Amino acid sequence: MPFLAQSGGHGWSSTLNLGPDGIIISLRKLNTVTFNHDGTEVIIEGGALTSEVMEAASQKGSLVITGNCNSVGALGAALGGGYGFLTGLQGLAVDNILSLTVVSGTGALKTVTAESDPDLFWGLRGAAPNLGIVTSVVMKAYPVEASGQYAWLGALVYPADKVEPVLRAVSELTLTPKMTVFFYFLTSGAPDYSPLIAVAPWYYGTEAEGRVAFASVIDIGPIADTTQVLYYPRWNEKAAAFCTRGGYKPSFGVGLSSIVLETWIKVWDEFVSWTALSGTGSSVVLMEAYCLDMVRSVPDHSSSFPWRSNITINAIVIPWFTDKKLAEEALSLGRRIRRLLQSTDDLKSPAVCVFDPSLLRLIMTDEYTLFRYVNFAHGDEDPAEIYGSNLPRLRDIKAREDPNNFFCHWFGIGSTP
Fold this sequence. Notes:
Largest sheet: 9 strands, antiparallel
Strand content: 15-25%
Distance between the termini: 24 Å
Number of helices: 13
Structural class: alpha+beta
Helix content: 25-40%
Radius of gyration: 21 Å
Shape: globular
């Protein structure tokens, strides 16, 4: 009988298909967030939401790296890598994990550290849903003064005729550890659903400092500016619209090394055509970029999280629709834009670098090696596109920890060929 452990219940992967007899194991009641006495470490249980971690951290006077959506399970996001507003300052979530409590596929409950089981500790940090159910982790936390719980963020909205200059300005930003930027193709919403461009800057500091850092984008002249200084537990409020329930969201992600202006103009044209259809106005194409100095200061193979030195930008296509008759067209759009973005990126590489014989044939036909952030993947990817050169080692660990392949519904790694 297939089963899946659920943290926050926020996921779009096409692999999440348990059939009519499958079981969801909800971890939501395991939602305690506990700090040590000086606020330098935190125990996060498997069902705690991002919002719950941020609120508890704020009360303790600490900051903890989390995802950027309040309704996401904190560990669900963290165990796949864990980008967030604080990535420039703290790195990835997987780099801040000190230990994990996990139930393996053999039924064993154990606490895993770098010393107690180096292989499993390595594998859980990037591919945990394939190796067991993580019931809690111990992570680093970062105490701050009261003033250190504030950041300047919000949205800068531009009309359709500004798409090229805004894209150029974003592509030319030099991100410092205190900066993060999100870029969106979206619509104005009801009643007319006009296509718009939005830039969501985040700056860890004052409004004046933030406006200087993002001056090149602001100087283009947004038609709306909702930026403001917000308290730490409120940083994710602006993302709430993208986390609402309802409709169909067959999302597609791709990792990129840069913004190719001409390609993104073509993506814009695709987006405009799609959102002209009835019931598609909530759709969005977005990219997110962080200062990656801290991320890249950690060795590439320190965890099973791949592409640490390759991916600079994560792009996601979300063709959100309400009429099920649009499903095939939405899937086609997502694959088309994903392929378009990847085809002009510098991350493309020759087929001969791939080690798996079955994958080798695929790449020789397709001409490119694709790069995916596991939390943003769609579900139609080959495991090597998601886990990269870590796949053989992960399969060896899988054979030991989950020999019956119970944990196979979240971008499965399969078994050793």
